[in-house]
From TrEMBL:
This is Cell division cycle protein 123. Belongs to the CDC123 family. Transmembrane segments: none annotated. It comes from Micromonas commoda (strain RCC299 / NOUM17 / CCMP2709) (Picoplanktonic green alga). GO terms for cellular component: cytoplasm. PANTHER family: CELL DIVISION CYCLE PROTEIN 123 HOMOLOG (PTHR15323:SF6), D123 PROTEIN (PTHR15323). InterPro entries: CDC123. Pfam families: D123.
Length: 243
């Protein structure tokens, strides 16, 4: 979905506000208690205007999101041009990037530092960067909604390709140790190397890139994403100098 400039500007605004009827958060308290709390903390009109930002609505975009979500089975994971808002999952009630309505998509995008970086500094490290190219993006920004799949973090891997050679592979979830992985390292490395050689090498249009993959229990390799080599892409268990 191509994002309109006003929505991109909204993502870059300070603050985060949700409409009263937003589906991004569940109703955690009973209505009668909510009314009591509201009456106890009523603000004057001036205080209300000064302290609470108006919730924004984008009807056409929200309708397009809703239609896409329904067509993809009712649950999606969002990605904005280059980055997925994984750093904002702490805002989600499911603690992951699964979204079932437009409000949840907008909440993750708005709360994500990775998304903000994409919009403000994505080209800053390009060799031909200039003041104009490093300015915040307002046009040409694309939102991708992919069908949600409950992938096991233990079987997600990041592959580093430098000058057309597969230089390294490591797990994406660097915060956890999975005891079964060491005994499967050989099989996993072989499966990824064969898949890359047969399906990606010589086909992908650049020679320096990072590829994220998922390996199934049958050692079938599925591409999750491609990322730029270096820059904001994390080397995870490696150092860029090692690669």
């Amino acid at each position: 979905l191509a994002l309109p400039p006003d929505f991109v500007a909204y993502l870059l605004e300070d603050g985060l506000s949700l409409a009263a009827d937003s589906q991004a958060m569940p109703a955690r308290i009973r209505p009668d208690i909510a009314e009591q709390m509201e009456s106890a903390f009523t603000l004057s009109d001036e205080e209300d205007d000064a302290g609470v930002a108006d919730a924004r609505h984008f009807p056409e975009l929200e309708d397009a999101m809703r239609e896409a979500i329904e067509s993809l089975g009712g649950a999606v994971t969002p990605k904005l041009t280059w980055s997925s808002p994984k750093d904002a999952v702490w805002m989600a009630t499911t603690n992951d990037t699964r979204c079932q309505n437009p409000a949840e998509v907008m909440l993750l995008l708005k709360a994500s530092d990775a998304v903000a970086y994409d919009l403000q500094d994505a080209y800053a490290q390009c060799v031909d960067a200039s003041e104009s190219s490093s300015a915040a993006l307002t046009t040409g920004v694309v939102l991708t909604l992919r069908k949600w799949a409950g992938l096991s973090p233990s079987m997600e891997f990041r592959c580093f390709v430098r000058r057309g050679n597969l230089r390294g592979v490591c797990q994406r979830d660097v915060a956890n140790f999975y005891p079964f992985l060491p005994e499967q390292v050989g099989q996993i490395e072989e499966a990824i190397a064969v898949f890359w050689q047969e399906n990606v090498h010589g086909v992908f249009p650049v020679v320096d890139y990072v590829m994220d993959v998922y390996v199934t229990s049958r050692k079938k390799v599925k591409i999750v994403d491609f990322n730029p080599y270096g820059g904001a892409t994390l080397p995870l268990l490696f150092d860029w100098n090692e690669l």
